[in-house]
Write a structure and sequence with these properties.
heterodimer, A: 184 residues, 6 helices, B: 719 residues, mainly beta, Maltoporin, Chain A, 2 domains, 22-stranded antiparallel beta barrel, five-stranded mixed sheet, 10 helices, 54% strand, globular
Chain lengths: 184, 719
């Protein structure tokens, strides 16, 4: 019995000592970094009524899978001098304008209604459910062998009057439609 | 100068001492396999790991993600060893899943050995080729027509029930798979009858193989060692056109015998071969699967049973049991949208058995339809219906017969379940019921209600109340088996287990509460408490002596023992588990489960022996600690400690043992693995044929043997 406890402690100590060597990156840290990059590589129409031109709003609708990561790493960053502000919306009724809206999988049954409400907005919608693009979303994040990839629906982007950088388009896994909004 | 010199000499002395120790270990490696493993582990643990993203010391890793170009971001890997488990985070049931990686790294060559990793599951190896697997009690050797063994756990292999209707249990010896090609093994503890039907009383095991598209290329694997004498797996996967994938495979395994209580060879070696195929075709919005397999095996076993009318009664002998079978299954999955889908499955399964006491065959034909669709924004409905025809034929012998010898049993079933979102994404209520009719069990209703509260994505609190039944087996309904003669009587009188058509289903009403929480993104724990109330459990009632009607020799008399629904009881317990993926290289899993069983007679008869023996078939405590560790990118190692409490009624003492695996990827296609199992003692009992006292309910049994320490190596070539 003594020998076993000795072995247990040895094993645990090894595990813990080896921990110090490597870094841990989680899925939603990477996805948060993608949202930040989308803000960098997408242009919104010059004037969006009722918004502060010095800010980029990134919203999360529904049950947030980011668990504070988004605020921690993206909040207060600047893109072309504009600060990023994170907003969370528990339900559709609370929603107000965001440049980027991440729509959680918890909302997958309500996608039609959500896109209906957003149809007149210049919002870059990002989601993960299988039919996110077919229901009207702009960018879908996809996990492939522990890496994050993304798909873009250009028709939805055109409708929202978004201009997506060719650098981003080139990296998309799956591109639907053609771009009509021109490029900066 | 002098100082440095001295230190140098001191260093040499220490190194010499260490190397002597190491040489001693290596020379006597059969004595210290574990010590060597641990030394490797510790040495490897102090090697430095290289982070995927360079750290600059100031910022936390996550902030750096914002500064790397997006092209690089696409290549950053996240930690997911427990991904499969994470996707079960919100399930309102006690679910646990082993991924392909978990299964391969367990080093198990057979599924029951991999099941030892699952919290709350009780796995007991009875001899070198028989296992009993259960959850939440009622374990024991799953054999014996009288059906008082591990009969409350349903097992599905790729959607096909492998729970045998003959004796209510699973013949694990023939349930074998290409471990490399399994996608996952999913275990639900607690009743699952609303979706899966009868006999999912204490749990369900779903063994799921990979799609053919995920097993492209050729895999050749071979190995051998002290117990797994020789095994070979061969698989080839390819494509027909652009949408259809296939694989063909074959597996052979020769297993050595264990030892008996006196340390002598238990003559329970076995040999098994199987071959099969799977085709997956991806049509527009549909997925068609066709798979089939045939197998055959020979299993040497010690028996203590009545075999012929010439005696002795019972006789101790060894018999080479032969079992074979095959199945063909096709499944069509059709997606209408991401929330609506239809599944249609048809399978045929045949099992033939020629064992010491029982021989015959069972054919099963099954059609199953499931349909899932949303109603409005708040309801997700799933309903289904099924038809199963079980057609069997058994040979009548002196010791065993079924009356009638052939029987067709029809099972009709239907179920409906609605998941209602009471509060958007935080509160969901799931209600549903299964309705079944079978010739043996009559009409059965198995409802359940589950409520789930997910205040955020990091935690889930759930509770459930459900009813499930274990339906009578063919043996309990129609069987007769001669067990032994009663000593000291003038005419030879046997105790005879006599099936009874009045025997009804056993019932459980189970109440469960569970809580799951992610502590940091890569660590989570899970706890479940359950309280089960059983009624109408099988008791064995001794009736008045009669003459055996169908025996040629009328000199024999019989004391029939028949199954009655006369035991009720309560079980209470909890299961705790935690998984922690420390980093890309190290993962820890630990679990503990507690079980308390309290049975009593339902009517005035008093059969304390039977109550005590059933209560004492399952361990009160079980614990597990498993470490996965990759010292280098081409090296993976695993170490696992298991504790299983004693089985009082079987006189089996508790044990703690360890398993170990190291695998080295020599090239991208060639892998070498070394596996050690049951390392802490040279042999131990996990099950026994002896109940602590003897009475009329002693039945025909396979003799138990001691599980031995085993070491084997394996080469896998995947190209």
């Amino acid at each position: 019995m003594k020998r076993i406890f000795f072995l247990l402690i040895l094993t645990l100590s090894t595990a813990v000592s080896a921990q110090s060597g490597a870094s841990v990156i989680t899925e939603y840290e990477i996805k948060a970094a993608f949202l930040y990059n989308f803000a960098k590589f997408v242009d919104w129409p010059e004037e969006i009524a009722g918004t502060d031109s010095g800010k980029i709003y990134i919203g999360v609708l529904g049950q947030s899978p980011f668990g504070g990561v988004l605020e921690k790493i993206v909040q207060d960053r600047r893109i072309d001098g504009r600060t990023i502000v994170i907003k969370e919306f528990k339900r559709l009724q609370e929603l107000d304008f965001c440049h980027i809206l991440y729509i959680s999988n918890s909302e997958s049954r309500r996608l039609r209604r959500i896109f209906g409400q957003l149809s007149k907005e210049n919002t870059l919608t990002v989601g993960e459910s299988n039919d996110f693009l077919t229901k009207g979303g702009v960018i879908r994040l996809v996990n492939k062998r522990n890496k994050v990839r993304f798909e873009i629906d250009l028709e939805a982007a055109n409708k929202a009057q978004l201009t997506i950088s060719s650098r981003l388009l080139k990296l998309a896994e799956n591109l639907k439609g053609t771009h009509t909004n021109g490029r900066k | 100068m002098i100082n440095r010199h001295r230190r140098h000499w001191l260093g040499i002395a220490v190194a010499r001492k260490l190397s002597n120790q190491l040489r001693h270990l290596l020379l006597h490696r059969e004595k210290y396999p574990l010590a060597l493993g641990v030394i490797f582990f510790v040495l490897a643990g102090h090697l430095h790991a290289t982070p995927v993203v360079p750290l600059n010391g100031k910022n936390p890793t996550s902030k750096i993600l914002l500064d790397i170009p997006i092209e690089k971001l696409l290549e950053v890997e996240f930690v997911t060893l427990f991904k499969k488990r994470e996707s079960l985070m919100e399930a309102p049931a006690a679910v646990y899943s082993l991924s392909n990686d978990d299964i391969v790294r367990s080093g198990a060559t057979r599924v029951p050995d991999a099941l030892r990793l699952i919290p709350g599951l009780q796995v007991a190896q009875h001899n070198a080729n028989s296992w009993a697997v259960t959850a939440r009690g009622f374990s024991g050797m799953a054999r014996g027509i009288s059906g008082q063994f591990a009969n409350k756990l349903l097992v599905l292999a790729d959607g096909r029930s492998v729970y045998t209707p003959l004796f209510s249990g699973v013949s694990w010896e023939t349930q074998d798979f290409m471990m490399e090609d399994l996608a996952r093994v999913e275990v639900i503890r607690g009743p699952g009858a609303t979706l899966w039907g009868s006999n999912a009383v204490n749990g369900i095991i779903n063994i799921v193989s990979k799609d053919a598209s995920a097993t492209q290329g050729t895999l050749i694997s071979a190995g051998g060692g002290t117990e797994q004498r020789a095994f070979t797996h061969i698989r080839h996967g390819g494509k027909f056109g652009i949408r259809t994938y296939y694989r063909v495979f074959a597996k052979y395994l020769k297993q050595d015998s264990f030892i008996d209580e006196n340390g002598l060879d238990a003559s329970d070696d076995s040999e098994m071969a199987r071959g099969g195929f799977r085709v997956d075709s991806y049509l527009t919005n549909a997925h068609l699967t066709v798979q089939g397999e045939i197998y055959g095996g020979e299993f040497n076993r010690g028996y203590r049973a009545v075999r012929s009318d010439s005696g002795p009664f019972p006789e101790e002998f060894t018999y080479r049991d032969k079992m074979s079978g095959g199945h063909l299954r096709t499944k069509l999955h059709r997606d209408f949208s991401s929330t609506s889908a239809l599944d249609l499955q048809v399978y045929f399964d045949r099992v033939s058995t020629d064992e010491a006491v029982v021989s015959g065959r069972i054919n099963t034909f099954d059609v199953d339809l499931n349909h899932r669709f949303p109603v409005g924004e708040r309801h997700e409905v799933i309903w289904g219906t099924g038809y199963r025809l079980i057609s069997d034929r058994f040979d009548s012998t002196f010791a065993f017969y079924l009356n009638p010898a052939r029987r067709n049993v029809t099972l009709l079933s239907a179920f409906a379940q609605d998941a209602i979102e009471l509060l958007p994404y935080t509160l969901t209520l799931t209600v549903g019921s299964k309705f079944e009719h079978s010739d043996l069990s009559g009409f059965v209703v198995q409802p359940s209600a589950r409520i789930r509260w997910t205040p955020n994505t990091d935690q889930t609190l759930w509770a459930a109340v459900s009813r499930a039944v274990r339906t009578p087996s063919r043996g309990e309904h129609d069987g007769r088996i001669i067990q032994k003669s009663i000593e000291g009587l003038p005419t030879t009188t046997f105790t005879v287990f006599q099936g009874d058509e009045d025997f009804r289903s056993e019932n459980v009403i189970s109440t469960e509460i569970g809580y799951r929480r992610r502590l940091v993104p890569q660590a989570m724990f899970d706890m479940t408490f359950f309280y089960n109330r059983y009624t109408d459990l099988q008791a064995q009632l001794t009736t008045i002596p009669i003459e055996l009607p169908t025996l040629p020799n009328t000199a024999f008399r019989a004391l029939p023992v028949k199954p009655t629904n006369d035991i009720k009881g309560k079980t209470f317990g909890f299961e705790l588990s935690a998984d922690w993926q420390i980093n890309q290289r190290i993962g820890l899993s630990t679990s503990y489960s507690y079980l308390q069983i309290d049975l009593e007679n339902q009517r005035l008869i008093d059969d304390t022996f039977q109550l005590k023996s059933t209560e004492g078939l399952s361990p009160e405590h079980q614990a597990l600690l498993a470490v996965k560790y990759n010292p280098a990118t081409n090296l993976e190692s695993d170490l696992r400690f298991r504790y299983v409490g004693s089985l009082p009624s079987q006189d089996v003492s508790d044990y703690i043992t360890a398993d170990f695996r190291i695998a080295l990827n020599i090239t991208n296609t060639l892998k070498l693995a070394l596996v050690g199992q049951n390392l802490l003692q040279s042999e131990h009992f996990e099950s026994s044929q002896t109940l602590t006292s003897d009475n009329a309910s002693t039945v025909t049994r396979r003799v138990a043997s001691q599980v031995q320490r085993s070491i084997f190596s394996q080469v896998t070539w995947n190209f």
